[in-house]
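R.M. (postdoc): so does anyone remember the format we settled on? I'll just put the structure tokens first.
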């Protein structure tokens, strides 16, 4: 059940990490080393609570890490003195090695272990000395995120916490989410107030930008700016959305959907009548290819050509995008990763090479796109033959670095959420075969009624597919990729949340999922029921639309919401017209996980071709 209405809000405090970040002018090597420090340090994000029963999180903070560090160091030392026959087991082959060869191989393995472990221990030690995590932190007692403690106490307690932040919290976590505290609002009425607040009372917070810049410093242009820069980015983005609507956007969607159907059909031709795919990987690759076409146009040749060159910077673009969100998710989102990945020292070590690989890949992608932008910018302005984002930015007079930032932002924001929604949609279709058949009949009927039209013309107006659109909206209502929206109080009188006045400067994290679920006023509010968008009275549907915030709200409303909705209609329509979908239940239960945004885990979908 998704009912979280009982908890009013959570107040976060941060206890580590330095205040001043690496200057943007620093060399890439310095930024990479800084990212290594950030990758392994404990953010120690704790819930502020004056509840005397709350566990003393400082004991978890300052005792476990040194002990684990000591254990790792001891293990590395013991490895050097292991008996030779122990390490020999690592180098046995079918052909028996001689004693001398075994001895050399054993010492080689020991040396490799030592070379790998030593830098990790050194980095960990530098962090221990630099950030002083071994010592208890001052301030009010706080329950760790693992225990799910919510804020308790009245207005006086809240002001005491505020005073503590102002006095002691001279450092903030690397992805800064506020000057001293963040309030997580879950009550529908509070969320509404935040979304409807005037911009001069609650301003935009560059939360994602801080996270991107601190975790992925190798891509300095990747950011979501605030203030005038943010307004400029949004203005250009809105203009590009309008530009796409009047050009070949639907053509790109139809081509991407056709390529996806061809992939499923081609894979089935090599095997049985049905084939199973990891939904996130399948749709992630499809949506990433679509977005790449919109961004770089003819410069991106699609999957077929990229398979010929695995070193191409755009190879498996969706994997880079997913890794980006996975890194962000593991850094800041879920209580369990925060506890185990941070407090259990070196639990991040198995992911270290993956982290470095992504940073290197992201840096390569950034450099490739920068060179591509430079080449296109050499052309004369006014080239209207190309409708992709790079040419649009060139014709709009946007400089190279700003264009690179917008391009990377568009990749990150537009490729991932549709893939997650389409994956959830396939799950719901599998669980509701009757609805799946209704949608298939709807798509088939529209095709029959418009036989003389091309696929692009058929999907130009998605109102022809009311049932499919209702299914997508219902999926977004229950499984929104983004669960919250951020805003910073910019009012000397503060802002009232749940009857308490939150002080000026605090960051509000408004969770709109309960607004769409708990506040529906229907008994089946937790059920996937697309008919609620079709069969209700006009007033009820108006209420549904008013509480529908899967694309955010207020100043941070997603500018690509219509683009995303049309893309999902095209892809889902193509698939259902040619294939039946069902769950591969042998893989186990499907779960929700946070990878920057919320997505399904362990979701495998079986596609069975429909006989003509």
């Amino acid at each position: 059940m998704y009912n979280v209405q009982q908890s009013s809000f959570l107040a976060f405090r941060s206890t580590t990490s330095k205040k001043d970040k690496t200057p943007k002018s620093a060399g890439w090597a310095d930024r990479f080393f800084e990212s290594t420090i950030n990758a392994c340090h404990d953010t120690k994000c704790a819930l502020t609570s004056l509840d005397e029963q709350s566990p003393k999180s400082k004991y978890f903070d300052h005792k476990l890490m040194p002990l684990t560090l000591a254990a790792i160091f001891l293990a590395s030392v013991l490895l050097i003195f292991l008996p030779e026959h122990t390490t020999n087991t690592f180098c046995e082959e079918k052909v028996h090695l001689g004693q001398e060869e075994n001895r050399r191989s054993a010492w080689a393995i020991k040396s490799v272990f030592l070379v790998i472990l030593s830098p990790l221990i050194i980095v960990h030690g530098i962090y221990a000395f630099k950030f002083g995590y071994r010592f208890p932190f001052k301030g009010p007692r706080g329950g760790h995120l693992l225990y799910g403690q919510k804020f308790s106490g009245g207005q006086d307690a809240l002001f005491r916490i505020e005073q503590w932040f102002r006095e002691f919290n001279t450092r903030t976590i690397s992805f800064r989410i506020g000057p001293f505290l963040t309030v997580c609002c879950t009550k529908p009425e509070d969320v509404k107030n935040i979304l409807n607040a005037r911009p001069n009372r609650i301003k935009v917070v560059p939360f994602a930008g801080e996270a991107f810049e601190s975790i992925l410093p190798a891509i300095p242009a990747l950011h979501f700016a605030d203030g005038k820069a943010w307004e400029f980015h949004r203005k250009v983005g809105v203009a590009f959305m309008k530009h796409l609507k009047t050009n070949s956007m639907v053509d790109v969607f139809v081509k991407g959907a056709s390529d996806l159907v061809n992939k499923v059909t081609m894979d089935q031709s090599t095997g049985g009548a049905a084939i199973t795919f990891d939904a996130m990987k399948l749709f992630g690759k499809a949506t990433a290819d679509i977005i790449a076409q919109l961004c770089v146009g003819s410069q991106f040749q699609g999957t077929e050509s990229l398979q010929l060159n695995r070193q191409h910077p755009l190879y498996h673009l969706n994997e880079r995008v997913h890794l980006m969100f996975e890194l962000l998710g593991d850094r800041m989102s879920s209580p369990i990763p925060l506890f185990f990945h941070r407090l259990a020292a070196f639990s991040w070590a198995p992911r270290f090479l993956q982290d470095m690989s992504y940073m290197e890949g992201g840096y390569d992608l950034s450099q490739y796109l920068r060179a591509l932008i430079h080449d296109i910018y050499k052309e004369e302005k006014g080239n209207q033959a190309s409708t992709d984002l790079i040419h649009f930015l060139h014709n709009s007079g946007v400089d190279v670095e700003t264009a690179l930032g917008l391009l990377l932002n568009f990749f990150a924001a537009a490729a991932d959420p549709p893939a997650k929604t389409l994956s959830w949609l396939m799950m719901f279709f599998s669980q509701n075969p009757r609805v799946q058949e209704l949608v298939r009949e709807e798509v088939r009927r529209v095709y029959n009624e418009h036989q003389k039209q091309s696929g692009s013309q058929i999907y130009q107006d998605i109102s022809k597919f009311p049932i499919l659109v209702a299914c997508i909206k219902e999926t977004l209502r229950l499984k929104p990729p983004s669960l919250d929206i951020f805003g910073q109080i910019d009012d000397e009188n503060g802002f009232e949340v749940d009857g308490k006045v939150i002080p000026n400067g605090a960051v509000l994290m408004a969770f709109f999922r309960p607004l769409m679920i708990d506040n529906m006023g229907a008994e089946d509010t937790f059920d996937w029921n697309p008919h609620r968008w079709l069969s209700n009275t006009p007033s009820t549907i108006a209420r549904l639309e008013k509480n529908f915030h899967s694309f955010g709200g207020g100043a941070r409303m997603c500018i690509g919401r219509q683009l995303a909705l049309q893309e999902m209609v095209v892809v889902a329509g193509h698939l259902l017209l040619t294939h039946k979908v069902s769950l591969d239940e042998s893989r186990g239960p499907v779960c929700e996980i946070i990878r920057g945004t919320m997505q399904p885990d362990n979701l495998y979908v079986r596609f069975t071709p429909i006989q003509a």
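R.M.: ...and that's the designed sequence above, right after the tokens. Also worth knowing: The longest strand covers residues 484-489. The radius of gyration is 26 Å.
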